């Protein structure tokens, strides 16, 4: 079995090592392929950079990876990375994609804009089991908590059919003994997501968008996360809703 680890924070993020370790301990052969530069807020964009007709890829040592794990810096958005992986761009098609651990929460309907979630959804559309993981801090201190929640979510995902769905995990940045537990949660009306703004003079700015009063939605993913719970939400990718009849138009009559 083969696992691809990616993210939207870039190849230098320590969150990659957390997911690589979880996948390796679960018995997967692991390859890391992450954006060469931060791509927060990229959603499921298929943007990338090419040279001589090929996607630009460099072998770079991501921090603290387990021994023997290849890591690649790709000049592409995370969803394009998983798209390319599905067609053998980084070796055999992966059986699993783990995306994250994202620096900052990805909660509520705002997950539409998340590059971390976008990578997982892209994998799902190619029949690859996918889990997205985020920790609610831009400078996390408690990676062990993220690893524990990842292990639990990954074990469940491997035992269940996720067809057409992605498992989205959010983890508070608290010590393992301070974690209140893990709850399945609906999406908040907006939630939270981060985006990276690249300015013309090569400066970068990370913006965090929040639009949910968690006190008004205490049982949502954003509300539970704010109270110290890790959350699990199953997300569906694009699908055709046939519940409501749309008035169809037949083909115009043919002239004889």
UniProtKB/TrEMBL annotation:
Belongs to the SurE nucleotidase family. Keywords: Hydrolase, Metal-binding. Gene3D superfamilies: Survival protein SurE-like phosphatase/nucleotidase (3.40.1210.10). The keyword Transcription does not apply. Residues 4-187 form the Survival protein SurE-like phosphatase/nucleotidase domain. It comes from Paraoerskovia sediminicola. It comes from the Bacteria. It holds the Pfam family SurE. This is 5'-nucleotidase. InterPro entries: SurE, SurE-like_Pase/nucleotidase, SurE-like_sf. The keyword Hydrolase applies. Its EC number is 3.1.3.5. The gene is surE. It is an enzyme of class 3 (hydrolase).
